[in-house]
TrEMBL record:
Residue span, Metallo-beta-lactamase domain: 29-233
TM annotation in the entry: none
Pfam families the UniProt entry points to: Lactamase_B (PF00753)
Protein name: MBL fold metallo-hydrolase
CDD domains for the chain: ST1585-like_MBL-fold
Length: 318
């Protein structure tokens, strides 16, 4: 049986590569980053279903799983960390670096899996594959502002909630780069959307979206010494561009759900409002998109996250 052909990794700098993880069979959707240093480091594994694409990408760079010293996941959502256990099983020398709130879910992914099935139902395994536990001796927690030396680089980790409570971002000051996961929005490249422009929007995922925390995270990140944001979805953006667009639209998302929410609101009602909001925002930037349904891989989840956020917000305020 012929093995599928995977996209070639993209050289971002002399020793940083992006591997397209082919999430849900889609190109230009989710990427992992490889830092070639004395201790080669991978940032994001993707889901279990991305494992073959990840292995092919490492091989194309000239690495195998046995060459990795560290595997970092920005947060433990399945599209970022679902394949961590599968990878660590092939990389017994490597440590999995994870946010303190995410460590227990890597060691015992049962609650992580249960939470995903609440969102995706019986499609969960088809979308992401299974989840393999990571042995605790392979898990390395990094607290806020702690560091990790990988050679000529020292990576620094920053607690970055807003998209998820178990999210950190990783600063490589040498590269003037922040590996941001989903904390500083999603970048939509033209190759993914088919639009003649690229743009950035936040991700209000179930169940942790918090626009107040988004602001706090972005305010903190503004003070850090980097020029580039490396998004998991997908590619890189200039720092101020990513922060400004994420902040503005996170506020707009929150305002929309506050205006239209009712206890019996249907997801499709929120989806339609978000499509309208994004279209209007793009138009104000002089960009016209003909069909925003290509974004539904995110917009449907954004709608679910907003309904959950607003329901909880009103419960707290009553």
């Amino acid at each position: 049986m012929q093995r599928p052909a995977f996209p070639q990794p993209v050289k971002m700098t002399d020793d940083i590569w992006q591997i397209d993880l082919m999430e849900q069979g889609l190109r230009y959707r989710t990427g992992a980053y490889v830092i070639l240093d004395e201790k080669p480091t991978l940032i994001e594994t993707g889901s279990a279903n991305s494992h073959e694409a990840l292995m092919a990408g490492l091989s194309a760079i000239g690495l195998s799983a046995h060459d990795l010293a560290y595997v970092v996941v920005t947060h433990v959502h399945l599209d970022h960390a679902g394949g961590a256990g599968q990878l660590i099983a092939k990389a017994p020398q490597a440590q999995l670096v994870v946010h303190p709130r995410g460590a227990r879910h890597m060691a015992d992914p049962s609650k992580l899996w249960a939470g995903a099935t609440q969102v995706y139902g019986d499609k969960t395994e088809a979308l992401f594959g299974g989840v393999v536990p990571v042995p605790t001796e392979h898990i390395l927690v990094r607290e806020h502002e702690e560091t990790l030396s990988i050679g000529r680089r020292t990576l620094q980790f920053f607690d970055s909630p807003g998209h998820a409570k178990h999210h950190f971002t990783i600063l490589s000051e040498v590269d003037r780069a922040l590996f941001a996961g989903d904390a500083v929005g999603i970048r939509y490249p033209t190759e993914f959307t088919g639009f003649p422009f690229e743009f950035i929007a936040p991700s209000s995922s179930p169940i942790d979206f918090d626009p107040v925390a988004v602001h706090q995270t972005l305010d903190m990140l503004l003070t850090l010494p980097f020029d580039w944001v490396y998004h998991a979805h997908f590619g890189k953006s200039l720092k101020l561009e990513a922060i400004d667009h994420t902040r503005r639209l996170a506020d707009a998302f929150a305002a929309v759900i506050e205006r239209i929410y009712s206890p019996d609101i249907e997801t499709q009602t929120v989806v339609a409002e978000l499509r309208r909001l994004i279209a209007d925002d793009l138009e104000r930037q002089g960009k016209t998109a003909l069909d925003l349904r290509v974004l539904d891989i995110d917009v449907v989840l954004d709608a679910l996250g907003l309904v959950y956020y607003e329901k909880k917000r009103r419960e707290r305020n009553n």
